[in-house]
């Protein structure tokens, strides 16, 4: 049920924002079984002017795209690592007018690799017929983000954060989703104290609620850096809580639409 709610909300935001057009390639990065693409095909009423392109580095069983074999919507799957993917070298994309990039299962740095892949496609394809007009990606697993891959480095550096700070914050983001600290500290030897440190001042030990707030703020900073990256490359961008926290603690998505001319946003926090 959780996945149905998430897919339904993402598709609702895509439709409301005008991302569901004819003559469009819908690219699902980190597609997994392709459930999101399947529901896009159903939402588009199996439009034969569209292409569903599913990208995943692993081979999947029980793929939803198998259910579209008799559909009028063309569906293709590419097995590749996103870090090696160059959209401009996929010939079939040039038969369509626009690209809309989607993601629901992209963990940590995979999101940044996908965003950079889309932006690079626009840079190479400037002046050609096909453009990456829309992006809709759920953001999750910030503890798996990597400084080298992260798209918001300029924003972080402008705010005075270093690569080492980023690594610390990456670990802190897990506080928002991993539940109470107590259960993870039961196995710490008694001589190290309840939090693994000798005589740690109690006022420096955050409560579970405080840990959750700090974790969510760290995630928000990472997401905002990604927003700044997209806006600096010509996108109008929003961060949306697309489901309730009760449905999933990973409940934020980025929605971006390309605008012309490109503009460089003011960086602030």
UniProtKB/TrEMBL annotation:
Broad class of enzyme this protein falls into: transferase
Any one GO molecular-function label of the UniProt entry: zinc ion binding
Pfam family, one: TRM13
InterPro entries for this protein: Methyltransferase_TRM13, Trm13
Biological processes per GO annotation: tRNA methylation
Catalytic reactions of this protein: cytidine(4) in tRNA(Gly)(GCC) + S-adenosyl-L-methionine = 2'-O-methylcytidine(4) in tRNA(Gly)(GCC) + S-adenosyl-L-homocysteine + H(+); cytidine(4) in tRNA(Pro) + S-adenosyl-L-methionine = 2'-O-methylcytidine(4) in tRNA(Pro) + S-adenosyl-L-homocysteine + H(+); adenosine(4) in tRNA(His) + S-adenosyl-L-methionine = 2'-O-methyladenosine(4) in tRNA(His) + S-adenosyl-L-homocysteine + H(+)
EC number: 2.1.1.225
Keywords: Metal-binding, Methyltransferase, S-adenosyl-L-methionine, Transferase, tRNA processing, Zinc, Zinc-finger
Keyword Metal-binding: yes
Residue span(s) of domain Methyltransferase TRM13: 6-256
Family: Belongs to the methyltransferase TRM13 family.
Function of the molecule: tRNA methylase which 2'-O-methylates cytidine(4) in tRNA(Pro) and tRNA(Gly)(GCC), and adenosine(4) in tRNA(His).
PANTHER family: TRNA:M(4)X MODIFICATION ENZYME TRM13 HOMOLOG (PTHR12998:SF0)
Protein name: tRNA:m(4)X modification enzyme TRM13
Species this protein is from: Zootermopsis nevadensis (Dampwood termite)
Upper taxonomic lineage: Eukaryota, Metazoa, Ecdysozoa, Arthropoda, Hexapoda
């Amino acid at each position: 049920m959780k996945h149905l709610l998430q897919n339904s909300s993402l598709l609702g935001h895509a439709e409301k924002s005008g991302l569901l057009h004819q003559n469009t390639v819908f690219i699902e990065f980190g597609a997994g079984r392709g459930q999101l693409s399947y529901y896009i095909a159903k939402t588009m009423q199996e439009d034969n002017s569209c292409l569903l392109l599913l990208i995943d580095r692993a081979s999947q069983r029980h793929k939803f795209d198998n259910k579209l074999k008799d559909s009028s919507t063309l569906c293709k799957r590419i097995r590749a690592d996103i870090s090696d993917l160059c959209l401009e070298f996929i010939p079939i994309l040039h038969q369509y007018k626009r690209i809309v990039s989607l993601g629901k299962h992209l963990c940590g740095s995979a999101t940044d690799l996908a965003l950079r892949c889309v932006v690079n496609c626009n840079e190479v394809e400037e002046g050609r017929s096909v453009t990456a007009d829309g992006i809709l990606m759920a953001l999750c697993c910030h503890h798996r983000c990597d400084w080298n891959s992260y798209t918001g480095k300029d924003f972080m550096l402008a705010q005075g954060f270093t690569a080492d700070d980023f690594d610390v914050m990456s670990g802190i983001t897990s506080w928002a989703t991993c539940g109470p600290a107590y259960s993870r500290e039961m196995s710490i030897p008694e001589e190290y104290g309840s939090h693994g440190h000798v005589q740690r001042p109690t006022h420096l030990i955050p409560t579970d609620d405080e840990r959750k707030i700090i974790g969510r703020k760290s995630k928000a900073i990472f997401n905002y850096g990604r927003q700044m990256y997209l806006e600096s490359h010509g996108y109008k961008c929003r961060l949306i809580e697309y489901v309730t926290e009760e449905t999933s603690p990973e409940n934020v998505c980025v929605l971006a639409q390309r605008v012309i001319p490109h503009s460089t946003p003011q960086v602030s926090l």
